[in-house]
Amino acid sequence: MESTTQQAIRAIREKAERSGFTLSDVAYAAGIDKAQVSRWSTGKVVPLYSAVINLQAACDALVEARLLMLQKESQQ
Q1: How far is CA 17 from CA 34, 36, 66, in A?
Q2: Along the 76 residues of the chain, how does pLDDT read in single tens digits?
Q3: Cα(73)–Cα(39) distance, integer angstroms
Q4: CA distance 70 to 76
Q5: Are 46 and 3 in contact (CB under 8 A)?
Q6: What's this model's pTM, rounded to 2 decimal places?
Q7: What is d(CA 33, CA 9) in angstroms, rounded to the nearest whole number?
Q8: How far is CA 54 from the centre of its chain?
Q9: Helix (H), strand (E) at residue 8
């Protein structure tokens, strides 16, 4: 059974992948070691709530940047 943290990280991964990013991309953008994020997603380590929020914020920022880029391309 997935923990709440694992569910949150899975949702972040899915959102990132729908926009063409990997969870490693999100971890890099958040300034978090990708190996640490991997440990969180497998449930080996439980992150602080603030770390998951930072990961979500980084994912949102990447997705937003991708959307802005696509908008600019479509206007040309």
Answers
A1: 15, 19, 12
A2: 889 999 999 999 999 999 999 999 999 999 999 999 999 999 999 999 999 999 999 999 999 999 999 999 999 8
A3: 37
A4: 10
A5: yes
A6: 0.89
A7: 14
A8: 9
A9: helix 4-18
